[in-house]
Amino acid sequence: MPTILKIHPENPDKSLIVAAAEILKKGGVIAYPTETFYGLGADAENVEAVEKIYDIKGRDYKDPVSIIIGDKQDLTRFVEDVPEVSRRLMEKFWPGGLTLVFKASSNISPRLTGGTGKIGIRLSSNIIASHLSKTLSGPITATSANLSGAEECSSADEVINCFKDKIDAVIDGGQTPGGLGSTFVDVTTDPPTILREGIIPSSLIKNTLRKI
């Protein structure tokens, strides 16, 4: 069974966040809560760890995997360009359930982009997810903690039942909202393209874009 790290969702124990980050630094895979569902996390700059994510989920390598960063300032490390429209969307919806799709920089492994040359990035409003990336000092993968094609997990127990000993640790941060995933918007196109409507309604995205 995976190691269980029970962390308070509003007042996380820093030592436990450090312990989780150490697992990631060693190439491990953990499940962690987000503002939507539980995510499956690996050090996004460790190609072997990213490949574990695909193998564990049974995910097609052609399907990109998005990432969570710990600070908006980290963005420029991982993208070629930050269009003005993306800055306005970030001001409005970050931190939160908006994943923006950018042209990936050379610092992003093609494994994450699925060969598209694009990378989905979000700044999470979940304190645990945000602290985890900050403590790692790098991005973490943000794919949902489920087997490809199966239902997403909203609790640590669901994650454990799904993966059993296939992952190294589970951060039990309580029940997540579930329902819908993050909203995906591709800002490499003009105008930006809403790829998937999630917890942020497309009407809010469109209204923001009209004001730009």
Please provide a written account of the structure:
The protein is of the alpha/beta class and 212 residues long. It has eight helices and eleven strands. The protein has helices at 14-25, 47-57, 75-78, 84-93, 110-113, 127-136, 156-163, 202-210; strands at 3-6, 30-33, 38-41, 67-69, 98-103, 118-123, 140-141, 143-144, 169-172, 183-186, 193-196. The longest helix has 12 residues, at 14-25.
Q: Estimate nothing, just give the exact number of structural domains.
A: 1
| Backbone shape | globular
Largest sheet properties:
6 strands, mixed
Mean pLDDT: 97
How large is the count of helical segments?
A: 8
CATH fold field value: DHBP synthase
Number of strands: 11
Report the structural category.
alpha/beta
Q: What portion of residues belong to β-strands?
A: 15-25%
Rg from alpha-carbon coordinates: 16 Å
> What is the N-to-C order of secondary-structure elements (H for helix, E for strand)?
EHEEHEHHEHEHEEHEEEH
CATH H-level superfamily title: DHBP synthase
Helicity, as a percent range: 25-40%
Q: Give the CATH class.
A: Alpha Beta
Q: List low-pLDDT spans.
A: none
Strand order of the largest sheet: 7-4-6-5-10-11
CATH architecture descriptor text: Alpha-Beta Complex
- Our measurement of the CA-to-CA distance between the termini, rounded to an integer number of angstroms, reads 50 Å
Secondary structure blueprint with pairings:
Elements (H helix, E strand, L loop, with lengths): L2 E4 L7 H12 L4 E4 L4 E4 L5 H11 L9 E3 L5 H4 L5 H10 L4 E6 L6 H4 L4 E6 L3 H10 L3 E2 L1 E2 L11 H8 L5 E4 L10 E4 L6 E4 L5 H9 L2
Helix pairs in contact: 1-6
